[in-house]
Specification:
Main location: membrane
Order of helices and strands: HHHHHHHHH
Radius of gyration: 18 Å
Pfam families: LysE
Structural class: mainly alpha
Membrane topology: Multi-pass membrane protein
Number of domains: 1
Subcellular location: Cell membrane
GO biological process, one term: amino acid transport
Length: 215
């Protein structure tokens, strides 16, 4: 009974911590909003599916001890610069496609990343996602692992359900909003999302250079 209560505590606390992070605006949320307006509600859950697969892989690597290797200024700086380039490129692609986008076109006509791969790439392009995992995330994983495999499983399920719940809600709200906005408003909406991605890219690039200089 005591173990059950501990596992439920790990699950609930993991859920709340992950939800607080999911609520913060970032590249993954921005891309989800833009693609949900293009393709509909299903984009959000599929993006989180890709995000969740990536996090599961990283979780396994952290348990194997890779966290101490990654958490070095030189490596984190290079990761930040690579992520900055990806974000800027994705923002530019979204900006150029916004001119021709229409609310009524078919998803098959959209020449962008598939939602599953977007979940992986957008997560990798955000250096703060990796920083969270090799610091707070690693500590939480090590704590949960004290209670065996079930401790890690309950941690992961709580974590990913928070992301899935929030991003699905956002995706549904945006998809339903398509019924009430014109193509002109939609174009402006896409441009704003694209600019946010490029701004994130510039900021992460600055942080990457700063980290490398101080390494």
């Amino acid at each position: 009974m005591e173990l059950v209560l501990i596992l439920l505590g790990i699950f609930s606390s993991s859920f709340l911590v992950a939800l607080s992070g999911a609520l913060m605006p970032g590249p993954l949320l921005t891309y989800t909003v833009a693609e949900a307006a293009r393709r509909g509600f299903w984009v959000g859950p599929v993006i989180i599916l890709g995000h969740g697969v990536l996090e599961l892989g990283l979780l396994i690597l952290l348990l194997l001890g890779i966290g101490a290797i990654i958490n070095q200024p030189l490596i984190m700086g290079v990761i930040a610069l690579a992520g900055a380039c990806i974000l800027f490129w994705l923002g530019y692609e979204l900006f150029t496609s916004a001119r021709h986008a229409r609310l009524s076109f078919d998803a098959e006509d959209v020449k962008t990343l598939s939602p599953f791969w977007a979940g992986i790439i957008m997560s990798l392009s955000n250096p703060y996602w990796l920083i969270w995992w090799v610091t707070l995330g690693l500590g939480y994983v090590l704590f949960a692992s004290q209670y065996g495999l079930w401790g890690v499983v309950f941690f992961y399920i709580g974590h990913i359900l928070a992301d899935l719940g929030w991003y699905s809600l956002v995706s549904l709200a945006v998809a339903q909003g398509k019924k009430f906005i014109s193509d002109r408003v939609y174009h402006g909406f896409m441009v704003v999302c694209a600019l946010f991605l490029m701004i994130f890219g510039c900021y992460f690039g600055y942080q990457g250079v700063k980290t490398l200089v101080g390494a």
